[in-house]
Specification:
The chain is mostly helical. The protein is 73% helix and 0% strand.
Length: 369
Amino acid sequence: MPLFSPRAQASVKTSSTLPAAPSSWQPSASSGSRYARDKQRRAAIPPWLINTASLIIMGLLVLLSLSIGVADFSWSGILQSLISQSANSDSSLMLVSRIPRTVAIILTGIAMAVAGMIIQVVLKNRFVEPSMVGATQSAALGLLVVSLLFPASALLVKMGVATIAAVAGMMLFMLLIHRVPPTDFLMIPLIGIVFGGIIEAITTFIAYQTESLQMLSVWQFGDFSSVLAGRYELLWLTGALCVLAYIIADKLTIVGLGDNIALNLGISKRQVTWLGVGMVAMMSAVVVVTVGMIPFIGLVVPNIVSRIMGDKIRRSLPAVALLGASAVLLCDIIGRSIRYPFEVPVATVFGVVGTVIFLWLLLRAPAEQ
């Protein structure tokens, strides 16, 4: 005797052919298709391919940067110097000016891009960078004060005072945004712009009263025209800090996911946060002491890479470093070529280019969503 009647069996068979109702934990069709598109896009451009292409582009820009300059230069003279193993004007120019300038540009681009990525993860906001949290302005203020009080102090002393001032400025900024709701993403950069403007106004007032505006202008506009051998070596410290950022990349990623997730995974949010703040302050101070302020690098570059490779820092940090170096190299080449034989500061060129790119990113976001 069958357990079900023929009518019941028919109803069971009919119901089994019906599509299953979506449960509450299953993604909807739109979110599932979006996830599939994002996964397909990430799989279509693997990280190694992006890094390889960025490295090739940076290599071409390095060769172009070494070739451009006011002084007479030829690669044949470099080849003759290598063959004869004797120095000539071309090899001396390359070792004293061209190579130090190119290396300084690369290290500066890497440092500011990585610093921007770190501060965005620490503050959980994609619209901030070191110049928007008072780091570079505070470093310039500390550098001006120590130069006025102790003009004969060593460069390391000035860098140390600038780093302490940058940390103090960032701590004050974090106290200001402590009561801002986490969902109000645009309020934090607005507070940072106002805060940085106040510090810059105080710095300008002190420089005006002490007749040091010309000295201050050197730090406020990033320029590589004065970089020579023996005047840029402090930037290697930023390279070591970038390596440290790669070592602690997983901890930074966990901290960026939220306080509760970091606590559940046994990560000390306070320690990682202050370590990141200290790294950003030191990078900003070294760059300001050596070549001056260069805005928008830490804002534009991490946002471009995050749209392509996601938010995992260990995977995207090499691409951020390479793209930052290539961007500063390209802007320096444009600045040296647009009014040859005069130079336009890199900060001015990147300010224009960075503004256009960031506005394009903002206007492009709703279309993707």
